[in-house]
Amino acid sequence: MEKYEQIAFQIITHVGMAKSTYMQAIKEAKDGNFKESEDLIVEGNQFLVDGHKVHKDLIQSEASGETIPLNLLLMHAEDQLISTEVIKEMAKELIYVHQNYVKK
């Protein structure tokens, strides 16, 4: 597998795990398991940080003069990174709403 395909898959894997964890956190909050949902947010944040580290390294390589070939897989990785950031913020808001406003 080409170097940049591996990098793209690393980003996709890390942020995919983060996204799944954030979605599970929302489910736990819906079920009233707020401690579990908060723990899942923390876990998801670590996956997201891992994805950002890979992404940062790629940006630093390009800043150092390395030519980074743009392809659909890398674009997908970028899209997944951005959308996971949005899902993280929405998950935190939904957990807050469930904790404070939804009656069980």
Write the H/E string, N to C.
HHH
Mind summarizing the main beta sheet? Answer: none
User: What oligomeric arrangement do these chains adopt?
Assistant: single chain
CATH topology: Methane Monooxygenase Hydroxylase, Chain G, domain 1
In what range is the share of β-strand residues? under 5%
Number of individual domains:
1
- CATH superfamily descriptor: Phosphotransferase system, lactose/cellobiose-type IIA subunit
Query: If classified by CATH, what would the architecture be?
Result: Up-down Bundle
CA distance, first residue to last residue: 50 Å
Content-based structural category: mainly alpha
The shape, in one word, is elongated
- Name the CATH class: Mainly Alpha
Number of helices: 3
What's the total count of β strands?
A: 0
Short structural summary:
With 104 residues, the chain is mainly alpha-helical. It is built from three helices and no strands.
Account of the protein in words:
The chain has helices spanning 3-30, 34-63, 72-100. With 104 residues, it is an all-alpha fold. The chain has one domain: Methane Monooxygenase Hydroxylase, Chain G, domain 1 (Up-down Bundle). α1 (3-30) runs parallel beside α3 (72-100) and α2 (34-63) packs antiparallel against α3. The longest helix has 30 residues, at 34-63. The modification Phosphohistidine is found at residue 76.
Using brief descriptors, characterize the structure shown.
mainly alpha; Methane Monooxygenase Hydroxylase, Chain G, domain 1; 3 helices; 84% helix
Topology:
Elements: H1 3-30, H2 34-63, H3 72-100
